[in-house]
Specification:
Layout: H1 5-22, H2 30-38, E1 48-54, E2 57-62, H3 68-84, E3 90-95, E4 110-111, E5 114-115, E6 121-122, H4 147-158, E7 164-171, H5 183-188, E8 196-200, H6 201-204, E9 215-220, H7 231-234, E10 240-248, E11 258-259, E12 273-279, H8 286-305, H9 307-321
Amino acid sequence: FSVTKEPMLKLEKVFTQIHLDSCGFKYSNSLEKLEIATKSTFNLDQFVLIVEIINNKMEVLKSPIGFKRRAEGMQKIIQMALDHGKIRDTVLYLYVADEYIYNFPDAPFLINAKPENKTGLLMIDNTFVDIEPETKTEKDNNAMIDWKTNLKTINNKCKDVSKENKIFFIGNNIELKKTKFNMRLELSKKHVDFPLDIKLTDTFGYLPMSDFCKYKYLLNLPGMALWSFRKKFLFLMNSLVIDVSVLRQYTNSIDKRWINVFDKLFIPNKDYVEIEYIFDNKVDQTDNLNKLVDSIKNIYETYERNTNDYSKIVKSGYRKGKLINDKRI
């Protein structure tokens, strides 16, 4: 990477996480493990992109049935890497769905995100080269918008913007997969005495991400999965990011917070504020949701009283968000 010393030091935790993740596998029989997983009865096959690299050239051996646009974005990212440097001959299995592959933790798939205490090879996700794909139409040839172009749009739109004093979130009205739990909907129905503004796209409509900078506080909530593509973009808005990190409780274990490849760059209570929410599908969530609302209110009131602390954490997150560029991707 062509980076100055300071950015490299800040990105060191990202590289360390990648290294530790890669050391978490026993690579004997890797292809056999990957093939068994892909051909299993768990329908992984429809979400797996297989790419072979020989002499620094890429050939797609298998495209997924689902999330085809994501797969195209991932191919574009791999090509960027090949153009930037040399990759040794290899075969890559990329799982382009949102979930963690619980049934095959020893198979070295490249994945979008994972619980922090699970094995997995984190990859750069497709939204770095395809921002908000749901907005693309035939009119603009379904063109992909990359990180650099997106950053330029945000900078132009957010320059000298006057921020509304709200805690803002907008997203799909969607339940956590294989549950009836819909945190977004439940929070949107709460009557609160502080400016919490949660909108659902099925009633409000779509709002470009570049409009998020109009709000002083930005809330990040889980949807179908317990992590989000949007989190990294929120740091570009010069607002205070409040991330609700859901820890999934099972009978004999708990998943720690979900992370993607750049999450180690951002430190809770230094670059953003994190609220841990323990979710057990067997337990009624009324009390937990009320506690969550109280936590959000407490954060809001704390940073309203302490404007210097607000500015400090916003600036720190913003600087780190801008460390991510095409070259480092």
